[in-house]
């Protein structure tokens, strides 16, 4: 919405949320925004209170809107039918109910949240039933439902939005399709705007994420084979990526994919396949998730095995807790599983991350058992890498923050207890810098050097 407000100054964009604290953060005088996203702050600074507004006044905002984007979260259900696989649509549903209640004229409703196929049907049903309850003296409300899933990635959101590979708009109402398309055409060439059916649009979004996740699990499976066979996964990636049919993106082996989308969308596909009786297709996609779980587990096991099966009372420094660089998002971060495994095995952990806050990590790692069970290790947070490394037995690089590429490994090595190891789970450090150092190096997809 910040990008739409920037590209279309004559359009008034209003963001509404029930969460007062969040809205207050978006409106804060010192621009302490609730998310860290490169290049977002300047856009908010420039357009806020001009044509970009943040408010909790849901009724008023719906009243005056011509187009409404439903952009609420759709997490995996934790209970009830489809628990562990299907998306929980309660926020989509309550948004649709609010729109049904407060809309006054013809309103275009755009499904922006990632949703299972045929969710638009649910939205349509709720919206059309609103006239049954409405005041008969008023003209009936009318709605057009479109699907326009979002393909931006965190950390590169603004550039992805400014220059997308494509924009997808699904729907049947040609006037509504044209209206939304014209907004995007303000900065995106028309040939990059694809018009499809509602169901194709919804499924295309899930499929794009499933294919991206599948590539990561594929290269991670190969990384384990490289470590055993003496090959280097980066050389393999480069060689296969040069084949224009394969392409060179999303071939970086790492600690497993994280983020709020890949696992959730894969689970959704698995659920849909099972729902339609396609068990082989369901098993195929489920394997992408299982491989991802295995990649995280095999890395924590490998660290523990390096210390002859026990990391109890060892000091281990974690470099990066975010699920990828340039974001403070920790949802499904592989760091969570790996750190939890090490804590379970009694390690004392020092976590460093340039953007993630200590509070955020505490919410994830601190549970009751941890406080009671004395065999479980303790964790501390620091923004000072030297404190994290002092006396450490191992460093585990989990997020590919640029500042980690510039570290003086010789200096850090001198601070550590010997023998010491760096586990580079992103495979990004320059091996030549380790020649002559006492710091041993393990790289994903290559093994010990
Ligand atoms: C992903 C998709 O890339 C977006 O197109 C999509 O819009 C978004 O989900 C969504 O559905 O909202 P995002 O989760 O923000 O975006 O980040 P990605 O860059 O896709 O990274 C996901 C995970 O895969 C990260 O943990 C990252 O470190 C990992 N990854 C990525 C690898 O391990 N190797 C790679 O080569 C690329």
Give me some keywords for this one.
single chain, 449 residues, alpha/beta, 3-stranded parallel sheet, 18 helices, globular, binds uridine-5'-diphosphate-glucuronic acid
What does this structure look like?
- This protein is an alpha/beta fold and 449 residues long.
- Helix content is 44%, strand content 14%.
- The chain contains 18 helices and 14 strands.
- The strands form 4 sheets. It has a 7-stranded mixed β-sheet with strand order 10-9-8-11-12-13-14. Strands 3-4-5 form a 3-stranded parallel β-sheet, with helices on both faces. Strands 1-2 form a two-stranded parallel ribbon.
- Strand 8 (315-319), helix 13 and strand 9 (348-352) form a beta-alpha-beta unit.
- Helix 11 (262-275) packs antiparallel against helix 12 (279-306).
- The longest helix has 32 residues, at 198-229.
- It is globular, with a radius of gyration of 24 Å.
- 39% of the residues are buried.
- The model has no long low-confidence stretch (mean pLDDT 95).
- Residues 114, 150-154, 209, 212, 216, 250-252, 254, 257-259, 261-262, 323-324 line the site of uridine-5'-diphosphate-glucuronic acid.
Proportion of residues in extended strands: 5-15%
* Class of secondary structure makeup: alpha/beta
Ligand types: uridine-5'-diphosphate-glucuronic acid
Our Rg estimate from Cα atoms comes to 24 Å
Biggest sheet record? 7 strands, mixed
Helix proportion of residues, in percent? 40-55%
The overall pLDDT, averaged over residues, is 95
Order of strands, widest sheet: 10-9-8-11-12-13-14
- The coarse silhouette is globular
- Helical stretch tally: 18
Please tally the β strands and state the result.
Answer: 14
Distance between the termini: 47 Å
Q: Which stretches of 5+ consecutive residues score pLDDT under 50?
A: none
């Amino acid at each position: 919405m910040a990008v739409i407000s920037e590209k279309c100054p004559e359009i008034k964009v209003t963001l509404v949320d029930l969460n007062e604290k969040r809205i207050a953060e978006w409106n804060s005088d010192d621009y302490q925004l609730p998310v860290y996203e490169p290049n977002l702050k300047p856009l908010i600074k420039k357009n806020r209170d001009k044509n970009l507004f943040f408010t909790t006044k849901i009724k008023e905002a719906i009243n005056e809107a011509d187009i409404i984007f439903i952009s609420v979260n759709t997490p995996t259900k934790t209970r009830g039918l489809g628990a562990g696989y299907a998306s929980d649509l309660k926020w989509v549903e309550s948004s649709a109910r609010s729109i049904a209640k407060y809309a006054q004229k013809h309103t275009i409703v755009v499904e922006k949240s990632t949703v299972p196929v045929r969710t638009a049907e649910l939205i349509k049903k709720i919206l059309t039933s609103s006239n049954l309850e409405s005041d008969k003296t008023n003209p009936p409300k009318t709605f057009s439902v479109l699907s326009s899933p979002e393909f931006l990635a965190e950390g590169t959101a603004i550039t992805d939005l400014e220059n997308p590979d494509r924009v997808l708009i699904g729907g049947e109402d040609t006037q509504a399709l044209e209206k939304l398309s014209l907004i995007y055409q303000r900065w995106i060439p028309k040939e990059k705007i694809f018009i499809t059916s509602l169901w194709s649009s919804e499924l295309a979004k899930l499929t794009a994420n499933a294919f991206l996740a599948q590539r990561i699990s594929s290269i991670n499976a190969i990384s384990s084979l490289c470590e055993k066979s003496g090959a280097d996964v980066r050389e393999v990636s480069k060689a296969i990526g040069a084949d224009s049919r394969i392409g060179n993106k999303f071939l970086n082996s790492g600690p497993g994919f994280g983020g709020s989308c890949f696992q959730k969308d894969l689970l959704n596909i698995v659920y849909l396949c099972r729902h339609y009786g396609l068990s082989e297709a369901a098993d195929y996609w489920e394997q992408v998730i299982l491989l991802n779980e295995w990649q995280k587990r095999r890395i924590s096991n490998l660290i523990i095995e390096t210390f002859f099966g026990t990391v109890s009372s060892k000091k281990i420094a974690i470099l990066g807790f975010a699920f990828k660089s340039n974001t403070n998002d920790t949802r499904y971060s592989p760091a969570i599983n790996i750190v939890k495994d090490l804590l379970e095995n009694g390690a004392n952990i020092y976590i460093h991350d340039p953007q993630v806050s200590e509070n955020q990590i505490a919410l994830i790692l601190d549970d009751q058992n941890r406080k009671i069970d004395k065999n479980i290790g303790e964790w501390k947070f620091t923004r000072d890498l030297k404190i994290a490394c002092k006396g450490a037995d191992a460093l585990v690089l989990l997020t590919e923050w640029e500042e980690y590429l510039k570290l003086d490994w010789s200096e850090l090595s001198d601070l550590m207890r010997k023998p010491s190891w760096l586990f580079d789970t992103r495979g990004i450090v320059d091996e030549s810098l380790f020649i002559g150092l006492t710091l041993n190096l393990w790289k994903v997809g290559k093994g010990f050097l």
